[in-house]
User: Which sequence fits this backbone?
């Protein structure tokens, strides 16, 4: 996205897997805001999300999308999901 070279970590990404599922949090326009650490625009964040999720899928991961809920409820979702795994 930024024209920077991407190191070749193919073998490590495929063989050093901790789990087959990855939690993902898509950009949430209603609460999106910029700060010192989050400098991307919503559009850039959406493109980044698309590229990252595409890479995870290319490496054979299953994606678990975090629901757009209050923080406590999101944490509960993660814990319930992990207990089933």
Assistant:
């Amino acid at each position: 996205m930024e024209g920077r070279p991407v190191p070749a970590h193919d073998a490590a990404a495929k063989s050093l897997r901790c789990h087959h599922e990855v939690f993902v949090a898509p950009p949430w326009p209603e609460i999106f805001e910029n700060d010192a650490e989050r400098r991307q625009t919503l559009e850039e964040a959406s493109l980044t999300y698309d590229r990252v999720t595409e890479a995870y899928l290319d490496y054979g991961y299953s994606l678990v999308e975090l629901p757009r809920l209050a923080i406590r409820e999101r944490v509960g979702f993660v814990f319930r999901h992990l207990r089933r795994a």
